[in-house]
Specification:
heterotrimer, A mainly alpha, B mainly alpha, C mainly alpha, B: mainly alpha, Helix Hairpins, C: 4 helices
């Protein structure tokens, strides 16, 4: 177990303590022991190079994400309640400008959690990973693509590393 | 607050019944697993509302276990479904 | 009822309405993937709202923390579950229904042919 896994161990120990409720020395030690044991037995994916989290960008990402969720829920609720119309579903493709597994997972989760979009599959063969997103109602393709690109950009700004930032801004220009 | 929680629980019962209706209707495996997952989420919501109604957190451990089981079950059936087909 | 009680009551009602809409959408939509959209997302957000409202009403701080753990858990696991079911349905060959735009099919054909 290398020191790189320390965030995993800390997170697992924190969940253990939260489940027990009291922050006593016994709980913390037991949590740490269980976490170390679990991480040793089930290593999981190798953690990539740690990238610093930028708090301002993180706030922007969370704010945009919450707004998307509220808006999409309202739209979906309306579509459920109004009489059946022909839904124009579709699958759009999105090129992702990051190679980090953690950031791709975060983007896919954020996209899946907003109603109306579902991350279907990721193709990693080419130069850039491509994410395919299933859209529930494609009434305006460009605005959907815009929202997806905005999600990706804000997530990379919050969590991606420095080189990813440069690549992203270079592509945008 | 008791009146509000009563209304909430009634609404959740209706939601659960609709999930069961979906489960019984002819459809693919994906439909059935989504219906079960939704039913479990409705159950978790119900436990949380019951906790508000009674004011005690005696069954919150059941809430945690139910949500974990829902996730694990859905994931397992999804892996199974990839090989088997709809 | 005080203002805080009103907020909690409103959150509870909105949360369970989302769950009800999820169940209704499960029955109304005609396509497998549309049903997946309608059922998983609003139900999860309903649970988050209800748990958030409930966490403020617990007398014991241990229970508050447990509800917050449930919220975080649901926010992390529900999208993963929905994605896996969607991907499994696609790979298993579930019919997609009428699509106005399908960029994945083009990519698959290019890979096969």
């Amino acid at each position: 177990m290398t020191l790189r896994r320390l965030p995993h161990v800390a997170w697992l120990a924190a969940v253990w303590v939260a489940l027990w409720g009291d922050v006593t020395a016994g709980n913390v030690l037991a949590g740490a022991a269980v976490a170390v044991g679990l991480v040793s037995v089930f290593p999981g994916a190798r953690p990539g190079p740690a990238a610093p989290v930028r708090p301002a960008a993180l706030l922007r990402f969370v704010g945009f994400f919450v707004w998307q969720v509220i808006k999409a829920n309202a739209i979906l609720s309306w579509e459920i309640v109004t009489p059946k119309r022909h839904l124009e579903a579709g699958i759009v493709k999105m090129e992702l400008h990051t190679q980090s597994d953690a950031v791709i997972t975060l983007i896919a989760n954020a996209i899946t959690l907003t109603p109306g979009t579902l991350a279907l599959t990721v193709h990693r063969g080419g130069p850039l990973p491509i994410l395919y997103v299933h859209i529930l109602h494609l009434h305006d393709v460009e605005s959907v693509r815009c929202d997806l690109a905005q999600t990706e950009r804000l997530a990379i700004a919050a969590f991606g590393g420095a080189t990813t930032q440069q690549r992203t801004s270079a592509v945008r220009r | 607050m008791t009146a509000v929680t009563t209304v909430c629980l009634a609404v959740l019962v209706v939601a659960g019944l609709l999930c069961l209706v979906r489960l019984a209707r002819p459809g693919s495996l994906a439909d059935r697993i989504v219906a079960l997952d939704t039913l479990l989420v409705v159950t978790v919501t119900g436990i949380a509302v019951a906790a508000v109604r009674s004011g005690s957190g005696a069954f919150l451990d059941a809430l945690l276990v139910t949500s974990l089981l829902g996730f694990v079950g859905t994931t397992t059936v999804a892996r199974f479904m990839e090989r088997r087909g709809p | 009822m005080s203002a805080a009680d009103l907020v909690v009551a409103a959150l509870l009602l909105v949360g369970v309405t989302l769950s009800l809409l999820a169940a209704v959408g499960l029955n109304r939509f005609t396509n497998v993937y549309s049903r997946m959209h309608a059922a998983t997302k609003p139900a999860t957000l309903g649970v988050v709202l209800v748990a958030a409202a409930a966490s403020t009403r617990m007398a014991d701080p241990d229970d508050t923390v447990k509800l917050l753990v449930v919220i975080v858990l649901q926010l992390i696991t529900a999208p993963v579950g929905a994605h896996l079911v969607g991907r499994a349905a696609y790979r298993g060959g579930t019919p997609l229904g009428p699509l106005t735009l399908d960029e994945l099919a083009e990519a698959e054909h290019r890979r096969d042919g």
